[in-house]
């Protein structure tokens, strides 16, 4: 999932440099959503790991 976030972030940066505002905004928005989902899953897995001990 983190690979998708990085890929979309790279697409957003390239699109922003080339001036494609809509594509850059959409890719950045999707990358943000996937990044926050990744963070939530990370926190959940850390909490589950601590509780199992």
Question: What does this molecule look like?
Answer:
The protein is mostly helical and 53 residues long. The protein has one domain (2-52). Helices cover 92% and strands 0% of the residues. It is built from two helices and no strands. It has helices at 2-18, 21-52. Helix 1 packs antiparallel against helix 2. The longest helix has 32 residues, at 21-52. It is rod-shaped. The protein starts with a helix and ends with a helix. The relative contact order is 0.15.
Secondary-structure topology with pairs:
Blueprint: H1 2-18, H2 21-52
Helix pairs in contact: 1-2
* Share in β-strands: under 5%
Radius of gyration: 15 Å
Q: What's the total helix number? A: 2
Number of domains: 1
Oligomeric description of these chains: single chain
Major beta sheet summary: none
Percent in helix = over 70%
Distance between the termini: 27 Å
Poorly predicted residue ranges: none
| Cα shape | rod-shaped
Task: Round the mean pLDDT to the nearest integer and report it.
Answer: 83
Care to give the gist of this entry?
By secondary structure, this protein is mainly α. 92% of the residues lie in helices and 0% in strands.
